[in-house]
Amino acid sequence: MDDSDSAAADTLAAGVFSEWLEEVRGAIAGDNESDVACGECTACCTSSQFVLVAPDETDALAHIPKALRFAAPRQPVGHVLMGYDEHGRCPMLVDNRCSIYEHRPRTCRTYDCRVFPAAGVEVDDETKALIAQRVRRWRFDYPTPDDRARHDAVKAAAVFVRAHCAELPEESLPANSTQLAVLATQIHDAFIERDAAAGKLVATDPAVETIAAVLTQRSAPASPNA
């Protein structure tokens, strides 16, 4: 087997891009869970990740010992974080399996490392080397031109936010590569439009003011009557 055959054998099918994008955006919005083909991979459970748990997640909280939880900084009262041990492993990981899988927090249910290759964002934390290895193996499928256009739009959104961070609302900016990748999936619509004449999606070049308004709207508190 030559190097190209070896590389191909080591890839992982990430799914049809537009279908994956719809699913992950639904997961972020709380409408569904992420369906990730994790297999035996526990990279996200062993990479020094804090797990946020909201106060309405009573089932998860009932299965996480109080000694493992602490108040989450910059979050509303009642939100807590679960940390990791000295080896960067989630304390709920027992014998390389999640001991509370059926009761795991929402953060775990919605986490999807495919957001990194989707946004063209590198995992930039050296403690997350295992996640970076997994990320490099994902390969999306593009059965239609729209699939490719949407992927290009997500990557364009990530590049745009990085390039214009000094001009965008500070409170809306991502604090790390994970947040940047997630944000890019959420705002990618601003970087494409439907060309009626051509019958396909085409790239757009939004103004900084347009994206600033999108970010401001996203971070604004929801109306009590909404």
Give the arrangement of secondary structure elements.
Layout: H1 3-9, E1 12-16, H2 17-29, E2 51-53, H3 58-62, E3 69-71, E4 80-82, E5 93-94, E6 97-98, H4 106-110, H5 115-119, H6 129-135, E7 138-141, H7 145-163, H8 177-187, E8 192-195, E9 200-203, H9 208-219
Parallel strand pairs: 1-7
Antiparallel strand pairs: 2-4, 3-4, 5-6, 8-9
Helix pairs in contact: 7-8
What would your notes on this structure say?
This protein is an alpha+beta fold. The protein has two domains: 11-33 and 115-124 and 138-226, no CATH class; 37-111, no CATH class. The protein has helices at 3-9, 17-29, 58-62, 106-110, 115-119, 129-135, 145-163, 177-187, 208-219, and strands spanning 12-16, 51-53, 69-71, 80-82, 93-94, 97-98, 138-141, 192-195, 200-203. The strands form four sheets. The protein has a three-stranded antiparallel beta sheet with strand order 2-4-3. A two-stranded parallel ribbon has the order 1-7. It has a two-stranded antiparallel sheet with strand order 5-6. Strand 8 and strand 9 (200-203) form a beta hairpin. Helix 7 (145-163) crosses helix 8 (177-187). The chain is globular, with a radius of gyration of 19 Å. Residues 1-7 and 221-226 have low confidence and may be disordered.
